[in-house]
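Write out this protein's structure.
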Amino acid sequence: MPDTLTPEQEARLEAEVWALEGVANQHKQNGDLEQSYRVSRQALANMEVMFGPIDNHVACFLQGFGSTLYHDEHFEEGEAMCLRAITIYEALHGPVHLEVAGALTWLGYRYDDWERYEMSVPVYRRALAIEETICGKYSSEAQTTCVWLGDAYVQLSQYAQAEPYFKRAILIGRTRLAIDGPWLLALTQERLAGMLFRLKRYAEALAAYADVLALNDGKFQWKQSRRRFNLCRARCTSGTE
């Protein structure tokens, strides 16, 4: 927090930030997005005065505001805010830190929302490299990033690149099943199965869908998976593959 502010000034600015965030949310609920953005920008300016431009609070606000802008299709400004958050985390913690990895992954999500998968791939790859360095190649942090990286490659029709990331995420999920539960593992199996189905590798897709079925206690969470499981089984039985 800057030393130039008195305790009274700090308290006043903090109160103004919280009040402005409430006003911004109210404008958004009323459908007045531009007014909501104007108030949020003022809240950000107050935070920078209160904490300084290089601060975790500011970076977190930038990520949230940037995501809101992305959601409302203000892509360029949303991207700029997410990139600035990454720069702040790097300045605070260095380039190899889980805060940086998390902010990179957050930006990758926004690129995926924008269907700019060619932009999310290098972001996810950098985040994964950080997670591997700090937590290990087969960590839970790496597992999640592997799933989204695999998804991005599938969207780019780069299936050979996607497959090893899905399979690593599945391997991690199996070793951590008792700790993390089945949800992410089942999701990853479903994503891999969908890719294999698209590639007409029906026997492999059938095995993957069977794993999804087992992880969901005999019930598919995804209706499409149930249909594809039955189709794969029929094609394998008939010798189509």
